[in-house]
Design a protein that fits this description.
Helices cover about 30% and strands about 25% of the residues. With about 150 residues, the protein is an alpha+beta fold.
């Protein structure tokens, strides 16, 4: 049985939205008393996902909208769903998140893509779908496991 009831909240997309959302998230996860590494994993993955939404789904501050975040604590970890009403992902699907080679000249490093690599590498069961006018990203983080 979870010591953390399911929770959800939303933030308005803006330059400060990610910081606000991460603070709300870490406060809500407080009862789990996550270790530094587990809390860091949660913060990194959610920061990458939220930054992508702010930057790409709501690129124009005049059309910014809500970002809704929900979390369930189950025996296999934390299950997150992040929903926004912004622009759809290119080709209607999440990027593959392939690791870029860093053995190149600094000027030849690819632009972007590192965030999706981190999300795919650190999270489990990552899925994206467009439902009507909403982007829905679901993922599981294997932290706060229950035996």
């Amino acid at each position: 049985m979870s010591i953390l009831p399911p929770f959800d909240f939303s933030v308005q997309s803006s330059e400060l939205a990610v910081r606000e959302a991460l603070q709300k998230l870490l406060d809500a996860l407080g009862p789990l008393d996550l270790g530094v590494e587990e809390a860091g994993t949660v913060e990194l993955v959610l920061a990458e996902a939220l930054n992508n939404i702010v930057e790409h789904a709501y690129p124009d501050q005049n059309t910014a909208g809500q970002i809704a975040i929900s979390c369930k604590h189950l025996s296999d970890g934390l299950h997150f769903k992040v929903v926004d009403q912004g622009k759809e992902m290119p080709d209607g699907q999440a990027p593959l998140g392939m690791q870029a080679s860093l053995d190149v000249d600094l000027n030849d490093l690819p632009e972007g893509g590192f965030g999706w690599f981190l999300i795919q590498d650190l999270a489990k069961d990552v899925s994206y779908q467009r439902v009507g006018s909403a982007n829905q990203l679901s993922m599981r983080l294997a932290v706060a496991l229950q035996s």
